[in-house]
Design goal:
Blueprint (H helix, E strand, L loop, with lengths): L17 H7 L8 E2 L5 E2 L5 H12 L19 H14 L7 E5 L6 H10 L2 E6 L2 H13 L6 E5 L17 E6 L7 H14 L12 H4 L4 H15 L4 E8 L3 H12 L4 E9 L2 E9 L1
Parallel strand pairs: 3-4, 3-6, 4-5, 6-7
Antiparallel strand pairs: 1-2, 7-9, 8-9
Length: 284
């Protein structure tokens, strides 16, 4: 079975058992086919097929029975999202009863779902979009996870930690998957390029509303705002972490973290097939 280069503990690190996945999510069946290489798979350029596959993967966790969210929201790839959770668990290996703050939890509530399913962590999920929070709360309710996952709204798009942290908060880690793009136009351009690479001119292969895809100033501006705000709330979490897609942003973050008084700065590489990304972690 082919290894996908994911974390050693990632249960999706080898080939998918489509018979089992279809049993867990029968809606997947119509999208499973034999590809030109003679392998059983799906058409990854079809967003509905991708969504049904990821639902099936998530349903391999017994506590999770329903995962419904609007089509305009990003469908997270479960194996990649799970890798962040496992790497975070390695970082927190000496901690007990972990409580995680998820910045930009989104309509799918995916990191809290995976963190509860794998490690029985507690979560507070934060988002600026009320519709996304409504969708996330429906998912929490559908799976009886209200005791494990709480949601808060960020009302100021210029703030990340300010306005959502409360006086009694104490977290093991903050996690974040920041927006990549500087504007809606840049996001649309990236989508067109991705479609061309998949040979798919007619179907939008990934969704995503504005706050999921872009932030004024792009990833770099978001990360440095987050980094600065973490220095204002250094006693609220043991670790602050974020996915970082652009390698060039890591050096500037490390320099800024030193100026802000961080005592540790760590970069965890993540390899997913041909894609390389990283988790940047710092503490005070």
């Amino acid at each position: 079975m082919k290894d996908k280069g994911l974390h050693p503990k990632n249960k999706f690190n080898t080939s998918y058992d489509f018979e089992d996945l279809i049993a867990r999510n029968p809606a997947l069946k119509e999208f499973v086919l034999e590809n030109k290489f003679g392998s059983i798979s799906i058409d990854f350029a079809n967003p509905t097929a991708v969504k049904e596959l990821n639902k099936a993967l998530l349903y391999t966790y017994e506590p999770i029975k329903l995962w419904n969210f609007p089509d305009e929201n990003l469908c997270p790839p479960i194996p990649g999202r799970l890798d962040y959770i496992h790497h975070l668990a390695d970082l927190l290996a000496s901690e007990e009863n972990c409580k995680i703050l998820d910045i930009g939890t989104g309509a799918t509530c995916i990191y809290p779902l995976l963190g509860v399913a794998e490690y029985n962590w507690e979560f507070v999920g934060v988002d600026i979009d009320l519709d996304s929070l409504d969708s996330a709360q429906d998912i929490i309710d559908d799976n009886d996870l209200d005791a494990n996952i709480k949601l808060r709204q960020q009302f100021d798009e210029n703030q990340i930690l300010k306005g959502v942290l409360e006086e009694g908060d104490s977290f093991s880690a903050v996690m974040c998957n920041p927006p990549f793009y500087k504007s809606a136009e840049e996001a649309r351009g990236a989508n067109r390029r991705k479609n061309r690479n998949l040979g798919n001119s007619g179907v939008r292969n990934f969704a995503g509303n504005n706050n999921e895809l872009w932030y004024v100033g792009g990833e770099k501006a978001f990360l440095h705002n987050y980094l600065y705000e973490s220095s204002l709330f250094k006693d609220k979490s043991i670790w602050f972490t974020s996915l970082v897609s652009k390698k060039e942003n890591v050096d500037s973050m490390e320099k800024s973290s030193t100026k802000l008084g961080a005592t540790k700065f760590k970069v965890i590489p993540m390899h997913q097939g041909n894609k390389v990304t990283r988790i940047v972690c710092w503490k005070y």
